[in-house]
């Protein structure tokens, strides 16, 4: 509980009034509990409130700045985990939604579903260091169908000065925020949706951040100036057997993630800075599937270092998985500010779990009969030992009455809307 209090202390001052501060703490505790969903209803019931109104006010009308809290979350993470060898990781994730009124929702491709769905897509920035990895920034993507419709934006509470920005622009803004805030990082990595962008590469080179960025197989690089730009999959096809090295990209849940790797020096475009430019190629042992990474470092970097950074990119996928287990994909709110508030508090809850895991690993010797405490296991223990509050029978009956009353009102409202849309009888 001490680390929970430490994490919350980083943001407590952002709530000038006692009640929102108390609800924010209860909200965080609820995220780490065993509630079925992280809605205001269930979090309020878990907290001992008599209705969800106070939790809803926390996400809606209460006065506090989610972006300043986001900055505090980053500060907490860097204070606990910061390391000069840190890695910044960019990626996005999509959440399938119903309806069209939730901020950013429309039919669009989401990697989560692997197809076009009615979904909301969010770009995230994660920070990975020897002590652990967690999310430190977020930006919901607004398609042009949203930003071109001022009335729709106003209905969702989107500020008038928020215009269209591609996911790449959102990603570059987050990198700038993190680096301007002094986040200690030596490397950056991202998947191919971001890695092929020359503006992102130039940003990182200008800031002196070495990078390993995934690119598509159709990406072109120049390995020999006489040949000009060539597709990276063509370069891979011409490699001799001796070019491949079997190395681990890091430890997975079932052991080392071994792949075959090849490494080719490339000639950079004239507008990119000096340094070591290379193409890293990963080949899966089981079926030969290839993945490609465009790499840059200010000084020569070893192949093992590039492989390690490439493997670090999976950390953000783990953040998405564990984050969604505590409500990252469950903001049951529609409006701009409420969405940012919910997601930012989930990021803090995830960061607290990450720091607890880091402290445990540092203070407990390795045990070959036990794996280290994982974030899901820490959350499970937290739920059973700390948030497993025993309420009175009256509390549960009060909530049963409230839910049934709310559902009755919703049903009546639905019937009235249906009757209002019925055509007149002839």
Set down the secondary structure blueprint:
Elements: H1 2-12, H2 18-31, H3 40-47, H4 53-59, H5 66-81, E1 87-96, E2 106-110, E3 115-129, E4 132-140, H6 144-147, H7 150-155, H8 167-180, E5 187-190, H9 192-195, H10 198-206, E6 210-215, E7 220-221, E8 230-231, H11 232-237, E9 245-252, E10 255-265, E11 276-283, E12 290-297, H12 303-312, H13 314-325, H14 336-363, H15 375-385, H16 393-421
Parallel strand pairs: 1-5, 5-6
Antiparallel strand pairs: 1-3, 2-3, 3-4, 6-12, 7-8, 9-10, 10-11, 11-12
Helix pairs in contact: 1-14, 2-3, 2-4, 2-14, 3-4, 5-14
InterPro entries: IS701-like, IS701-like_DDE_dom, RNaseH-like_sf
Pfam families: DDE_5
Protein name: IS701 family transposase
Overview of this protein structure:
The protein is α+β, with helices and mostly antiparallel strands and 426 residues long. Among the domains are: 212-302, no CATH class; 390-421. 44% of the residues lie in helices and 21% in strands. It has 16 helices and twelve strands. The strands form two sheets. Strands 1, 2, 3, 4, 5, 6, 9, 10, 11 and 12 form a ten-stranded mixed beta sheet that branches. Helix 1 (2-12) runs antiparallel to helix 14, helix 2 crosses helix 4 (53-59) and helix 2 (18-31) crosses helix 14 (336-363). The longest helix is centred in the C-terminal third of the chain and has 29 residues, at 393-421. It is globular and about 75 Å long. The model has no long low-confidence stretch (mean pLDDT 91).
């Amino acid at each position: 509980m001490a680390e929970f209090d430490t994490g919350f202390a980083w943001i407590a001052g952002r709530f000038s009034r006692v009640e929102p501060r108390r609800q924010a703490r209860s909200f965080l505790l609820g995220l780490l509990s065993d509630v079925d969903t992280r809605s205001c209803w269930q979090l309020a019931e878990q907290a001992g409130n008599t209705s969800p109104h106070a939790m809803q006010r926390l996400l809606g009308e209460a006065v506090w700045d989610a972006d300043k809290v986001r900055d505090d979350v980053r500060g907490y993470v860097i204070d606990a985990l910061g390391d000069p060898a840190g890695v910044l990781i960019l990626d996005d994730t999509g959440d399938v939604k119903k309806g069209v009124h939730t901020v950013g929702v429309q039919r669009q491709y989401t990697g989560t579903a692997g197809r076009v769905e009615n979904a909301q897509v969010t770009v995230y920035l994660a920070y990975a260091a020897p002590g652990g990895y967690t999310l430190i920034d977020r930006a919901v993507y607004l398609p042009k169908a949203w930003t071109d419709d001022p009335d729709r934006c106003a209905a969702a509470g989107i500020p008038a000065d928020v215009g269209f920005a591609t996911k790449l622009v959102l990603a570059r803004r987050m990198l700038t925020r993190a680096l301007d805030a002094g986040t200690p990082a030596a490397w950056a990595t991202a998947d191919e949706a971001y890695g092929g962008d020359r503006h992102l590469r130039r940003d990182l080179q200008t800031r002196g951040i070495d990078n390993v960025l995934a690119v598509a197989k159709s990406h072109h690089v120049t390995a020999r100036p006489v040949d000009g730009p060539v597709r990276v999959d063509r370069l891979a096809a011409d490699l001799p057997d001796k070019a491949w090295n079997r190395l681990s990209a890091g430890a997975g849940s079932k052991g080392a993630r071994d792949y075959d790797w090849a490494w080719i020096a490339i000639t950079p475009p004239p507008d990119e800075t000096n340094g070591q430019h290379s193409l890293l190629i990963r080949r899966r042992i089981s079926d030969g599937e290839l993945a490609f990474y465009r790499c840059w470092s200010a000084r020569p970097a070893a192949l093992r270092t590039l492989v390690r950074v490439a493997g670090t990119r999976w950390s953000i996928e783990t953040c998405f998985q564990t984050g969604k287990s505590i409500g990252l994909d469950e903001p049951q709110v529609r409006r701009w500010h409420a969405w940012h508030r919910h997601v930012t508090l989930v990021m803090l809850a995830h960061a607290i779990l990450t720091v607890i895991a880091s402290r445990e690993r540092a203070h407990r010797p390795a045990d070959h009969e036990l794996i280290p405490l994982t974030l899901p296991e820490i959350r499970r223990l937290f739920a059973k030992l700390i948030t497993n509050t025993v309420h009175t029978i009256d509390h549960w009956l009060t909530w049963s009455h409230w839910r049934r009353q709310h559902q009755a009102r919703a049903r009546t409202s639905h019937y009235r809307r249906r009757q209002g849309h019925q055509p007149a009888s002839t």
